[in-house]
Amino acid sequence: MASKLMVGNWKMHGSLAANASLLSEILSGMGGVNCRAALCVPSPYLTQAQSLLAGSALALGAQDVSDHESGAYTGEVSAAMLRDFAVRYCLVGHSERRQYHGETDAVVAIKAQRALSVGITPIVCVGERLAEREAGLTEAVVKRQLAAVIHANGHCISEIVVAYEPVWAIGTGLTATPEQAQGVHAVLRTQLQAATAQAERVSILYGGSMNAANASSLLAQPDVDGGLIGGASLKATDFLSMLKAASR
Ligand code: PEP
Hints:
The chain is an alpha/beta fold. It is built from ten helices and eight strands. Strand 3, helix 3 and strand 4 (89-92) form a beta-alpha-beta unit.
């Protein structure tokens, strides 16, 4: 299995000055980090991050991509545009996009396809809401979300990354227990194995209030291949501590 993959999601946070200082602090503390790592920054800061991360062990990521290739889609950013900035990873189907922008499973699947078509690795986010968990629907929901992406991407499916992010744990301070995370990751792994002979190439990340205190126990689970980290990726010491936990 490849090394763990730790991805920060800055969401809509940052400024030129704040980014410069955060990246400088992170980059100066990377000694001893040997996991894979990336930061998904807001689009206006791709140029800045591309230049500050150049030659470092931190890859550049975006937070979304248009489901269209090009054209009259005001405000959208295409996969080819992201590629121009050496973007390596792109989140697709983050629950905040599904919730506030009405992204359906079908749209998320096309977004993954757009990213793959230009050589960007889509990080496909799946996860159930609290009411769905309480109704015993967790497995059905994440399988439905991933099935749409498998269906649209066929033989390329081994090139994606999956992030299991229970919606009730994102930004709430509530975290899935390591056992809850492992249970869902195992379901997703089995689904990928049924879709491709190369399922072991797919990293399955956990996201949802992962922090410096809980990262090690989550990352110790056999099917947790890394983390997708929101709030705690905005604090250099916390993010570095998680990168080090993933490097053991
Ligand atoms: C996220 O934004 O994907 C996320 C997991 O956020 P947080 O770590 O803040 O819960």
